[in-house]
Design a protein that fits this description.
Layout: H1 21-32, H2 45-60, E1 64-66, E2 79-80, E3 84-89, E4 94-99, H3 116-130, E5 135-142, E6 145-153, E7 158-159, H4 162-171, E8 175-179, E9 182-187, E10 192-195, E11 202-204, E12 210-212, E13 216-218, H5 222-234
Parallel strand pairs: 1-5
Antiparallel strand pairs: 2-3, 3-4, 4-6, 5-6, 7-11, 8-9, 9-10, 10-13, 11-12
Helix pairs in contact: 1-2, 1-3
Length: about 240
Amino acid sequence: MCAYGNHPESTEGNNGKTEGSALESAEGHVTASTGTDCPCDVCCKSFTTAFSAILGWAEDNGLIRQISDYDFFGRPPDGAGDEHEAWFEENSSRWFKATYDNEFGLAWGRLGTATAKEYLTRWVLQNQFFGDDIHLVALVNSNSKMRVLISQPHIEGDPASPSDIENWFISIGFSKIDFSGSVAWYLEEENLLVADAHEGNVLRSPSGDLIPIDLNIVKPAGHLLEAIVDYLKKNSN
């Protein structure tokens, strides 16, 4: 499996496993839970089922934490967007990013929040294919609502230009998909669909490498995959 980024390598915890193994464990548990893979809106059963699955996993693994367990929650975030509030910790040179209450980032191809399964799978895919080192830190109890806390290495760099981003994706084998002005990138050999690859989410490092930091990644299926295949056929040279 290829990794297309140049992120720092994963570190190991005291138990000999990579610190990112919690992410893979949680994603595997939620994925294996019946009824979590329905690509539909927030009110459907798959959202509730996936929510319960990640909560059960965290309880079993002792990863339910309180806001008071993390000092940075006591200060204003160093950054905030549509999906997370983020705090930078100098001692680890990592960003700690918390989802908003009972949400799991933005859904792919529909309005509202993603499911827990979609959220976890997205970060697993970013680690696997783009060499990132995203960790699942904990589920945080925020006034009886859940926030997912992840961490990610700080990357030095400047926003890459749109043309550099486009050329980079093409150079590593992706095809450009334009759905009514919404641009995504598709790698057919891996069935990998990437969105949100804009200047704010792809950096050019001091050495000149392009490094994606916050992509929205899915393995498309069903109607979405059919639409991609149809688009590529109509726009093939």
